[in-house]
Amino acid sequence: MKITRVLTKNQTDVDAAFRLMVFNILAHNRDDHVKNFSFMLNERNEWRLTPAYDLTFTHGPGGEHTMTVAGEGRAPDRSHIMRVADGTGITKNRANETIGEVSSALSDWLRFADEAGVRNDTANNIKESLLD
User: How many CB atoms lie within 10 A of CB 89?
Assistant: First the structure.
């Protein structure tokens, strides 16, 4: 979050990076290394966070997130998320809303998986790893 704030000077980009962090935690995307976050210089000579990419269900090296969340890599939880929010200008209410929105989107995983033709056993295996 800090590099997003320093580089972009834009709270909207900080909020988007925060949402992506929450998604990575709840969706079990532990391949959240620095090469999966990019910035682009726009026509006004402003750095902006690029859209998210390489969002993959993965257990990560040693079962941990590649990037820690408030120092926690194996099992970051709401308390770690809230510590990050506190240091980035995101209110407690907004952080909780973001967690709820991402969790709600992930609750439709089995429907999305079915529409995408993901095998049932694979979809259910992933569903078991999604966090509420």
Answer: 13
- Please tell me the pTM assigned to this model: 0.94
- Residue-wise burial string across 119-128, b where 16 or more C-beta atoms lie within 10 A, e elsewhere: eeeebeebee
Any idea where the domains of the chain sit in the sequence? 2-129
* pLDDT > 90 fraction of the chain, expressed in percent and rounded: 92
- Kindly give the residue spans of alpha helices, DSSP state H, lying in 1-132: 2-8, 11-26, 78-86, 92-106, 109-115, 120-129
Q: pLDDT tens for residues 63-81?
A: 899 999 999 999 999 999 9
Interhelix angle 11-26/78-86, rounded to 10 degrees, is: 170
Supply 68's token pair: 């820690």
